[in-house]
Amino acid sequence: MKVGDRVEQLLKIENLYKTFTIHNLGKHIKASQNINISLNKGEFIGITGKSGSGKSTILKCIYRTYTTDEGSIWYESKKFGLINILDISERQMLYLRKYEIGYVSQFLNSMPRTTAKEIVEHSVLEMGYSKEYASQEAEKMLGHFEFDRELWDSYPNNFSGGEKLRLNIAMAMVKHPRLLLLDEPTASLDNYSKEKVKELIKQLKIEGTTMIGIFHDIDFMEGLCDKKYNMQAGEFI
């Protein structure tokens, strides 16, 4: 990626390879190979494929919870300018996760003895906003997903799978990130809750958020995605 490419592109993945080694078996598993993605600002890319085809690996490499074997992940940061995510320091990566890049996984990892409202508030507070503003934004987001008010001050460890997933989405979307990575965001949601997620995705697109989403639900993607990719055995087909 060249400096002149920065005008429209927010993210560009070039020749990404990621393998996993099972040491006791002496095996190498190709999770993702020869991945090339160009993502313009405000675009939404959807990736489909069977479980185990390597879809989530791409998102985890972008978020740098996985290291890579080969390739580059170019990102235009608001603070750092054009950077290769694979080469920046851990401190810079932590900054990006805090202020610029959001990640929605299928699983909720929350702090113990922290209420649902406090979890969403924390996402806003860590960006430097006031307690009052964080509380207002948390209430808006919890209201959008129609959490019963009695759940706002409850601990999520007692929530259903669908409720935990909705809370996960609320935590990421309340920050209005520049780049949002969605790893099966509707996996355990009913149709009504899926529509609530779709409404927020559409709103984020209007605001200019750039997104990559992994979905099994092909119907959900209709009308949302600017580009679609299908993965099989770690490669786009």
Strand-residue fraction?
Answer: 25-35%
The pLDDT mean sits at: 86
Name of the CATH first level? Alpha Beta
What fold name goes in the CATH topology slot? Rossmann fold
Sheet with the most strands: spatial strand order = 6-7-8-3-9-10
Q: Count the DSSP helices.
A: 8
Biggest β-sheet, characterized?
6 strands, mixed
The N- and C-terminal alpha carbons lie at a distance of 23 Å
| Succession of helices and strands | EEEHEEHEHHHHEHEHEE
Number of strands: 10
Secondary structure category: alpha/beta
The tally of structural domains comes to 1
C-alpha geometry: globular
From the alpha-carbon coordinates, what is the Rg to the nearest angstrom? 18 Å
Low-confidence stretches: 3-7
Percentage of residues assigned to helices: 25-40%
Q: CATH H-level name... which superfamily?
A: P-loop containing nucleotide triphosphate hydrolases
The CATH architecture term is 3-Layer(aba) Sandwich
Please provide a written account of the structure:
- InterPro entries: AAA+_ATPase, ABC_transporter-like_ATP-bd, P-loop_NTPase.
- By secondary structure, the protein is an alpha/beta fold.
- It has helices spanning 55-62, 90-99, 116-125, 131-144, 149-152, 161-173, 191-207, 218-221, and strands spanning 9-22, 27-40, 44-49, 70-77, 81-84, 101-104, 179-183, 210-214, 227-232, 235-236.
- The protein has a 6-stranded mixed beta sheet, sandwiched between helices. A 4-stranded antiparallel beta sheet has the order 2-1-4-5, covered by helices on one side.
- It is globular, with a radius of gyration of 18 Å.
- The two termini are 23 Å apart.
